[in-house]
Amino acid sequence: MSAPAGGTLASARRRLRWPGSQRQSWGRPRFLVFVTWAYVLWALVPVAVAILFSFNAGRSRSVWQGFSLRWWTGDPTLSIFHDPDYVHALTHSLTLAGLDMVIATPLGVLLALGLARWRGRGSGLANGLMLVPLVTPEIVMAVSLLLVFTQLTLVPFSLIHLGTGAQVVGQVTFSLSYVVVIVRSRLASIGGQYEEAARDLGATTFTSLRLILLPLLLPAILASMLIVFALSIDDFVVTQYMSSNAATTTIPMYLYSNARGGTTTPALNALATILVAVTLLGIAIAFLVYRLFSRGQASEEGSALRELSGMGTA
Q: Which of 9, 116, 122, 124 is deepest in the core (most CB within 10 A)?
């Protein structure tokens, strides 16, 4: 009986000595790491190549001819900051993103608060319908909005015409759900004990909302604002269907209509680089803001409760 035990011990020692030959089931999954990095490279290398050719000295978008800022600022007529079409597409994209952020964020916060407090009949259905824009294909939503704005003669649909107004309404429609989901997840993590404590100390509904709930929701609100901004500036389908003419062209629309043209220059790559940079910057700021405010959340909660406690004793 001792021989098998000795053999088992020796085999275990060999496995520990050469971990690559017989890996333990709990060891590092190198194959999964390889697949992950392969996917990341497959997804990012084309983007990096497109960004690189925005600094190409020549007109080619596939043959490297030296480093230059010609297509950014150097060329007096063809660079992105000197061509009026590029400037207008960039300006219009930022305008739509700003309007979407300003409108969708407060509406989403109010909807999240209302849905979180709705306990009556139909609350489950309302919560489910709020998630429909998240799972509805964007092309379906775009076509539906187009038919509503162009075919229905009922107010208020008949008051919305294709163009900037329709683009803003369309972007707000699909981005509103993202704000609701983010804010509601924050509400679920906060719970109702802070508001209950404020009410016990004599605070009114508005006071508890202003001094307790909104400061606690601030990280989620700021994060949702920047997420909405990134979603808006990247959107193509809804914005394209709601467009009326060249005056309502955005960066994604301009890229789509000119990317396959034989006369395009690396300025188009520079425009795409701006789109990527703005999107990544918005997401990075949202993440950092959320982490920053979440880190100091405990001190904010304590100070708010102390303030209310002072109000109650007074």
A: 116
Alpha carbon 243 to its chain centroid, in Å, reads: 22
What is the residue whose two structure tokens read 């608060």?
Answer: 113
**Cα 103 to Cα 209: distance, rounded to the nearest angstrom:** 20
Q: How far is CA 35 from CA 30, 32, 43, 44, 288, in A?
A: 9, 5, 12, 14, 28
What residues does 56 pair with on adjacent strands? 67
Residue ranges and CATH numbers for the domains of the chain are 83-313 (1.10.3720.10)
The partner residues of 67 in beta bridges, in order of sequence, read 56
Q: What is the mean pLDDT of residues 239-259?
A: 88
- Write the pLDDT tens digit of every residue in 227-241: 899 889 889 999 999
Per-residue pLDDT reduced to its tens digit, 84-143: 888 899 899 999 999 999 999 999 999 988 888 777 776 777 777 778 888 888 899 999
Q: Are 103 and 172 in contact (CB under 8 A)?
A: yes
Is 224 within 8 Å of 105 (Cβ atoms)? yes
pTM above threshold 0.85: no
179 touches 109 (CB < 8 A): yes
Q: Using alpha carbons only, what angle is made at residue 163 by residues 160 and 165, rounded to the nearest 5 degrees?
A: 50
